[in-house]
Design brief:
two-stranded antiparallel sheet; 3 helices; globular; about 120 residues; alpha+beta
């Protein structure tokens, strides 16, 4: 009787790399080039830093205005436009729509008493 071989033993080296990359994409959080607090590339030991970037993506979407991204002209909330507004509900609705468009599952989105925006959600 033949023993069963693991699935990966049937792959060529290229197919194995593709398989590993797909597993990484499926089970790892979003990674990207990280930025520092001023928006410049984060560099450590002379190298660009790559790491967990979900929060960075959320911040970029909230700060961007519609039309800032050529590929996605409808993406962007424009939080700076809300600074002089009394009614922040349209901002929360727009933020939720944009974050969901980016692939997030939003459970709750609210301003806390100290003025911080609390995003309760995760990327699918």
């Amino acid at each position: 009787m033949k023993s069963k071989q693991p699935l990966y033993q049937y792959f060529t080296r290229f197919e194995e790399l593709i398989f590993i990359a797909l597993l990484y994409i499926e089970f790892c959080p979003m990674t990207d080039i990280l930025l520092n607090k001023t928006g410049d590339l984060l560099i450590q030991n002379g190298d660009i830093v790559i790491g967990y970037s979900d929060n960075q993506h959320q911040e970029d979407i909230l700060l961007a205005s519609k039309g800032d991204y050529k590929e996605f002209p409808e993406l962007g909330v424009g939080i700076s436009n809300m600074l002089n507004e009394d009614d922040f509900m349209p901002f929360l609705i727009e933020a939720k729509k944009n974050l969901e468009y980016d692939g997030m599952i939003i459970n709750n989105l609210k301003f806390e008493e100290n003025g911080n925006l609390n995003i309760d959600g995760y990327y699918k």
